[in-house]
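stuck on this fold:
=====
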Amino acid sequence: MQKVTIPALHQMKRDGRKIVGVVAWDYQIAQLIDRAGVEIISVGDTVGINLWGQPSPLEVTMDQMVLVCQAVRRGTERALVSVDFPFGPLQEGVDSAIRAAIRLVKEAGADMIKLDGAAAFPEAVRALEKAGIPVFAHFGITPQTALRYGVDYAAMQKGAQVPAEMTEQLVAEAKLLEEAGASLLDFQNSGPIVGPAVTAAVKIPVIGGFGGGPWLDGRMRMAHAAIGYAASAADSTADAYANVAKITLEAIGAYATDVREGRHIRGQVPT
């Protein structure tokens, strides 16, 4: 099994082959994702909201990100493991960012560090690249960005035309991050107009998570969203790749029935 490398991802872009990324937070899921042959496993700070029920991603701590990344690292052999900074180290300055990144590489086993809002911190991207730590740089269109250009955010997500100056600005940000040494870009809400323009403007791969599309070099999706793991998925009619929540609800219900009716439970050898 050949380990995925950043040069290999750059070659995939040159060859026109799509890069597959999945967000994961635990050892078991990481093993399955790695076995499926994806290129990137991203340990996102969304773990706080989606797995632990925290009301805000701002509550996630550095210690928690280290612990979660360690679990994913143990379950991963082939894919590149990227990990998000929690809120704080990047905003506190370059020295803080370097210390945090070194800890995530040494203690958590990360191959790459993902910086949210990286376009506002090119000096941190440069410093990490100089320190030999690959950067997955996030940027893109937020509700605040859309408001600045007088664009209807909801309409834009559905493919509405965006101003030429917005496209020019995002292309400039992508080029800035590439020049600063970013290894990959995570383009939020790329859309079918700006997305292709940015993808063509840089030599490094442009991956889309939230609001991405097939016009980018690859896609990123939460494993728990793809398989319908969240409790809310049990009642959802969305076209996910599976509905693990519904299966789990039915399975635990069947287990409870067996226990209450005095039957042997499934998967356990009777004694």
Notes: Residues 230-265 form one domain. The beta strands are 19-23, 40-43, 80-84, 112-115, 135-140, 184-188, 206-208, 218-222. The radius of gyration is 20 Å.
